[in-house]
Amino acid sequence: MSGVKEFIAARDLLRDAQNYAYAKEHFSWPRVDHFNWALDYFDTLADNCVHPALLYVDDTGIEEKVSYALLKQRSNKAANVLKNQGLRKGDRVLLMMPSCVELFEIFLGAMKLGCVIIPASTLLTEDDVVDRIVRGKTKAIVSSAELTSRIERSTKTSSLSKIVVRGNAQGWLSYEDADAASSDFKTSDTFYPRDELLIYFTSGTTAKPKLVLQTHGSYPIGHLTTMYWIGLKRSDLHYNISAPGWAKYAYSTIFGVLNAEATSLLYNYSGKFSAKNVLDTVERYGVRTLCAPPTVWRLLLLENLKARHLALRELVSAGEPLNPEIIEKVHSGTGLTIREGFGQTESTLQVGFFPGMKVKPGSMGLERSDQFPFIAKELWRFRLALRDQSA
């Protein structure tokens, strides 16, 4: 086997593994010579997945289910919109918008075209935007309407292509024009696992944020680790509480979920975070797997979890260490144990408690160094192989 078939075989082994010991013994990273995850893998799901790829809800009452087939068509349209703007493989596109269906369409469309995606937080200042344009060598920006004025003040002398989502702005191409674009997309480009796919600007403390590059191999394939850690199964509804612009969004809202052929819940709430509204949403739609940072878990505990009728099967947490008492209180309220994981923008998930493993609060992974989780070891081997290919 080669290419996408080997990727799917590796995915199936992890997704269907009954325990950690079996996964450790039998898993190996797929070897792919040519690979574009959006074209070679995601598009093949359109005919087989009858459940949604996305479920979008917000506080205004909007609910939208997007099938794998429709997302394939819409991302093809997005790829053609970008192509019609003169963009091509290797050009860098800044995405700055909240969690929404259009974000997925453009993310996948840009990947199909071969653009390098620069995810950006909606909280960026004007100086931050300028920094990402200059050091990121940005050719185009796609933004939601409410952010265009901030971006415009940062790009007055720029000749960037600008596309606005969910609204209109003077001097910006409306993404609604994508409806007129073809839903068929073809490319003559060849994609390799070492080709650039994502550039993240990490948080800066004493200096400017550094740029972190991920490739068509490292994140789409590497996030098999995230899929396995979460414990995702086919058709699960997964909710990851994370904002676009951060690597964790790619971890647990995009690649981890779609690798499993599951459904990603996009809950776009307005105003401040509300634990009650989040739990109402999780309960109403029957979320099966939930990922949240420790800060959110603390807020969720302010609600009476025992009074909820939750369909949850797996709970995970990442971002910072989780206090043992939080794990205990959540277990008392739900009967489930939060499993922690650790990864970086520069990597995918490296270490954690995987499904079926006994959780030891205050620790992570296995106790003996010679049993360091195979996922981390294999991940570094995979990244070294990518490096050797590009040398």
Folded structure, characterized:
By secondary structure, the chain is of the alpha/beta class. It has 2 domains: 203 residues, Rossmann fold, CATH 3.40.50; 162 residues, ANL, N-terminal domain (Rossmann fold). Helices cover 36% and strands 19% of the residues. The protein contains 13 helices and 15 strands. The strands form 3 sheets. It has an 8-stranded mixed β-sheet, sandwiched between helices. Strands 4-3-5-6-7 form a 5-stranded parallel β-sheet, with helices on both faces. A two-stranded antiparallel ribbon has the order 8-9. The longest helix is centred in the N-terminal third of the chain and has 17 residues. It is globular and about 55 Å long. The mean pLDDT is 91.
Layout of helices and strands:
Elements: H1 3-16, H2 20-26, H3 37-41, E1 52-58, E2 63-67, H4 68-84, E3 92-96, H5 101-113, E4 116-119, H6 126-135, E5 138-144, H7 148-154, E6 161-165, E7 173-174, E8 196-201, E9 211-215, H8 224-230, E10 237-240, H9 247-259, E11 263-268, H10 275-285, E12 289-291, H11 294-300, E13 314-317, H12 324-334, E14 338-343, E15 349-352, H13 374-390
Parallel strand pairs: 1-11, 3-4, 3-5, 5-6, 6-7, 10-11, 10-12, 12-13, 13-14
Antiparallel strand pairs: 1-2, 8-9, 14-15
Helix pairs in contact: 4-5, 6-7, 8-9
